[in-house]
Amino acid sequence: MTPSLRTENLTIRFGGHVAVNGVTCAFRAGELTVIVGPNGAGKTTWFNLVSGQLRPSEGKVFKGDREISGLSPSARAKAGIGRAFQLTNLFPKLSVLENVRLAVQARRGDGPRIFTRAASLTRLRDEAQGYLESARLADVAGYPASALPHGDQRKLEVAMLIAMQPDVFMFDEPTAGMSVDEAPVILDLIASIKKDTSRTILLVEHKMDVVRALADRIVVLHNGELVADGKPDEVMALPQVREIYLGVGADEEEAA
Ligand SMILES: Nc1ncnc2c1ncn2[C@@H]1O[C@H](COP(=O)(O)OP(=O)(O)OP(=O)(O)O)[C@@H](O)[C@H]1O
């Protein structure tokens, strides 16, 4: 089976510093992979290379059989790479419902038009309402996105991403800065995406409880290089991984 996403020898240098160094890996539909590694390991930079915010110094990115290394971020989004950004995708002045409605509309290829015919508007809004309910945002559907607290804005962004239905979902620390009450909603949403086995999910995450709950597979980056890749228990048991990554996780495990 062709992987849904693949990077081949992906490398980027900033001056003399190699932030991502020859990363080759492939991801299948129906699989949630957590990318872990210490601070500065290259996780976000690798994400930026996949979603198009950065261009590689060397190497390639493939979506299915198609090479997408030369495409802009928006062309990659159209090709099915969906990435949640730290709230930069929101339309702050529009209502929560309208934000999701525009995401549904964009997916349907209508473009994100604010004005549209009444009958289709009702259909789009009904669909958007369903996504809001899953994100437990139905009660605030009429509020401007900018009026929501931070945690709700993060949920809204995930709801919009789900409404876009990309083939590949990319989340970079999706619960960072969220309260312990709010984080489970995001994790439930990600778990619900997993139920659709045609999707591929990539998650950068530091929190070991999240990794344990969601990961089918773990990829470990260290100094820009891929140093381990496999089933969570096997990867976490590797002495090399415990040494380089679990400086954080081993303490947490002992504390748990
Ligand atoms: N635009 C840039 N210019 C120069 N150096 C950069 C740039 N972007 C990233 N780096 C460097 O590349 C390395 C990898 O950074 P990156 O943010 O990808 O790490 P990370 O694994 O996501 O870390 P964290 O867990 O702290 O977010 C770091 O040393 C960082 O300082």
From TrEMBL:
Every ABC transporter domain range: 5-248
Pfam families in alphabetical order: ABC_tran
SMART domains named in the record: AAA
Molecular-function GO terms, alphabetical: ATP binding; ATP hydrolysis activity
Entry annotated with the keyword ATP-binding: yes
Keywords: ATP-binding, Nucleotide-binding, Transport
Entry annotated with the keyword Transport: yes
Entry GO CC: plasma membrane
InterPro entries the record matches: AAA+_ATPase, ABC_AA/LPS_Transport, ABC_transporter-like_ATP-bd, P-loop_NTPase
Protein name, UniProt field: ABC transporter ATP-binding protein
Gene source species: Aquibium oceanicum
